[in-house]
What we know:
CATH topology: Rossmann fold
Low-confidence stretches: none
CATH class: Alpha Beta
Mean pLDDT: 93
Strand content: 15-25%
Strand order of the largest sheet: 4-3-2-1-5-6-7
Number of domains: 1
Number of strands: 7
Amino acid sequence: MTKISSLCAFCGSKVGDDPAHKEAAWRLGRIMAERGVRLVYGGGRIGLMGVVAEAVHQGGGEVIGVIPEFLMDLEVGNDEIGELLVTKSMHTRKQTMFSLSDGFVALPGGLGTIDETIEVVTWKQLRQHTKPVVVMNVGGYWVGLTALVDQIIAGGFAHEAIRELFTVVDGPEAVFEALESESEPTDEVLTSHL
Length: 194
């Protein structure tokens, strides 16, 4: 069982068209604050990033944003709540977010959110960490990801154990139970494709 004291949230710099995504981001932030879990996120004040950060902050929780220099203006770096770490590159940003976190949750988002999520899942497959990864599938947003994983397995590119690398939940209320109960992946996750 993993104790989560610092959770990294990957999420969009837009709120998206479905109001349920914004509501779920807000609720997740409030749950984090209630549980005393520090938020680590991409550092922006806009989109779902801004929503979850503001919810944690308003709930009295701790917030650490991590943003590369070149995105400070584009993503409107949020230096008004919590701590804002400015990095030299995207790679440094992701490594910093990883090192500050006990686990990860992916909310709806765009290509950057997909990139961050797939990267931590891949690092887990390669045994670079055993931190839990949860995908918050609000409104079925991530069904494409699970379908892609099924296609990878069906195509013979990975063992079915890659499904163990992350847990899919329907909403924020299920995130912490999933994080804390996720088991370590089996050896086949790595060894079956070498």
